[in-house]
User: Which sequence fits this backbone?
């Protein structure tokens, strides 16, 4: 893999989690340069500056990780620094390749990456789509993202908003479920801290089991539910009129729809 420098323009919760994941994967610290207005240090000897550089990025991966609505303000200042050797990587939810191309007309390659926060542990999911998947630097970006967990190319950009809802937002939905599991136990008399510990470990163990199994989670659920036993009674509540499936479908629909709105806002 080439050792292209990596600029992180914006390094808040998400890009910071990615950088933490790359450091866990032993990427050399001197590959990374952070630009963030606050200039807040990242640690680990990573270079941080509060302004864009004076001279161009040259051959580099330049990841933008600010909020989607900031693109119109920030891109004009970056434009003259981006040339045909520069690969722009955007983690901005919603914002489409065509909008990014308008923002960075001289970039050699543009890739959208949709990470999630568990990338900090190398256990994330990163959806990817490039203007040219076979083109310059696409493989470099894919290799870099694979260090953060599961990296998947998405064939159709129209599905990228769904990926953003499923895996980008997904940890938030799973955290809600963990809280609900813990609060349910607490409401039935368990010590709150103990209920939370047990809920988190139950989700961790179940996720690892599902990840290592060739069988679908539905089959694994059936293995827990002994005929005539108590789990089935609980599943009956989740399954009644597809209660959980409908709730999760509506959740993903709402998040997907907001991603589409953000794409629209960025087009203006
Ligand atoms: N949070 C998540 O789980 C996910 C977020 N995303 C995407 O990541 C992006 C960032 O989200 P998130 O990390 O949560 O947000 P944060 O608010 O945590 O981070 C925003 C970052 O943008 C920086 N910033 C603000 N103004 C500028 C500027 N003028 N120039 C350069 N950088 C600037 C901030 O700088 P400073 O640090 O100095 O304040 C900060 O580092 C969004 O586009 C979002 O769609 C994608 C997937 C998941
Ligand atoms: O909430 C957001 O807009 C971003 C997209 C995926 C996760 N966070």
Assistant:
């Amino acid at each position: 893999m080439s050792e292209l420098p990596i600029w992180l323009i914006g390094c808040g919760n998400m890009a910071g989690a990615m950088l933490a994941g790359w450091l866990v994967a032993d990427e050399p610290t001197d590959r990374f340069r952070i630009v963030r207005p606050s200039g807040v240090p990242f640690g680990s000897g990573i270079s941080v500056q509060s302004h864009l550089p004076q001279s161009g990025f040259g051959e580099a991966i330049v990841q933008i990780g600010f909020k989607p609505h900031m693109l119109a303000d920030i891109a004009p200042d970056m434009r003259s620094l981006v040339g045909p050797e520069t690969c722009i990587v955007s983690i901005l939810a919603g914002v489409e390749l065509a909008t990014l191309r308008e923002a960075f007309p001289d970039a050699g390659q543009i890739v959208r990456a949709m990470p999630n926060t568990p990338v900090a542990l190398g256990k994330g999911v990163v959806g990817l789509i490039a203007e040219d998947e076979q083109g310059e630097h696409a493989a470099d970006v894919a290799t870099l993202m694979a260090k953060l967990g599961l990296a998947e190319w998405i064939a159709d950009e129209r599905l990228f908003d769904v990926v953003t809802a499923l895996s980008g937002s997904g940890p938030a939905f799973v955290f809600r479920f963990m809280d609900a599991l813990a609060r349910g136990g607490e409401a039935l008399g368990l010590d709150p801290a103990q209920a939370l510990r047990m809920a988190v470990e139950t989700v961790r163990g179940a996720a690892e089991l599902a990840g290592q199994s060739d069988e679908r989670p539905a089959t694994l659920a059936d293995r827990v539910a002994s005929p005539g036993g108590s789990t089935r009674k609980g599943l009956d509540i989740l399954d009644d009129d597809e209660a959980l499936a409908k709730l999760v479908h509506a959740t993903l629909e709402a998040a997907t729809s907001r991603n589409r709105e953000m794409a629209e806002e960025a087009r203006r």
About this structure: The chain has a mean pLDDT of 97. The first strand starts at residue 6 and ends at 9.
